[in-house]
Amino acid sequence: MESNAVLLESKSSPINLLNEMHQLRLLGHLCDVTVSVEYQGVRAEFVAHKAVLAATSKFFKEVFLNEKSMDGPRTNVFLNEVQVADFASFLEFVYTAKVEVEEDRVQRMLEIAEKLKCLDLSETCFQLKKQMLESVLLELQNFSESQNSEEESATQPSVLLESKAAAVAEADQADSPLDPPGSPADRPRNGVSPEVPATKSKEK
């Protein structure tokens, strides 16, 4: 009798794997590549694992798959025009899936992600830049609305005065008769005042 297949899946395994690889890199264990970066005379070397770099960066994947022979125990890769701090942040991201950088470095991290063809870092930078832009737009909108409300509150008293003046004028018209004094309705018809009765003609 065949038994049904069941799925054994660990939610923590990917995180544990990353953490362990990160610790191995920090300790320099089992590292098989040295990446030398240089920018404006500042140079530094970073040891890492080919498998991790190849899995997270198409640039490194192409380099490692196309290399003909090992240059000794470790492969050496040289990167020009990459700042030391940026590559250190890149390494931390690919080994931990997170990194903390200053806001003004997000654009530089996006550039290094594109240079090294790291899709995960590119998407993360794009999302963060989008959130930052939305936040700035929201602040501008709130500032604009507060300015408009201040202008409206400044003009409101004059509007109130105008509306009160209009209301008083309407009240005055309501209190006065429909036909003002001196109008044709108040004038006597045929020269005879309506209040005074017509006198009888004298009897002969």
From TrEMBL:
Keyword annotations: DNA-binding, Metal-binding, Nucleus, Repeat, Transcription, Transcription regulation, Zinc, Zinc-finger
Residue stretches of biased makeup (Low complexity): 158-175
Residue numbers spanned by region Disordered: 146-204
GO cellular component, one term: nucleus
Organism of this sequence: Anseranas semipalmata
Any matching Pfam family: BTB
Location (main, coarse): nucleus
InterPro entries: BTB/POZ_dom, SKP1/BTB/POZ_sf, ZnFinger_BTB_dom_contain
Protein's name according to its UniProt entry: GZF1 protein
UniProt cross-references to SUPFAM superfamilies, sorted A to Z: POZ domain
GO MF terms held by the record: DNA-binding transcription factor activity, RNA polymerase II-specific; RNA polymerase II cis-regulatory region sequence-specific DNA binding; zinc ion binding
Superkingdom assignment: Eukaryota
Localization terms from the record: Nucleus
Residue intervals of the BTB domain: 31-103
